[in-house]
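User: Fold this; tokens only.

Assistant: Input:
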Amino acid sequence: MATYPTRQDIPPWVKIPEDLKDPEVFQVQTLLLKYLFGPQGSRIPHIEQVSQAMFELKTLESSELTEVLVYGSYDHKLRAKWMLQSMAERCRLRQERGMLRLEEAMKNLELGQCWE
């Protein structure tokens, strides 16, 4: 059974109906969406235009994850999915490194307080 987008503003580079069948689907941490797409998804139109694809976001019940559906020609949707997954992984790793640095700084502060 095909999943069709609920969006009405389908970009002109997406061919109807063939590009709306069988989207590429992946999940991303909801917290990373702002880093990927900007506040309130402000960068989505630009990323869609550059990738020649169309995105639809669906928050899953857990709300910790959001499902990203990528519509377009076979090549464009695969490339867009790969690009977004790579960007999400890079954001996640940067966030993880930031947390490790924060933990290290907190430990250093705790050690410093012991000597006062």
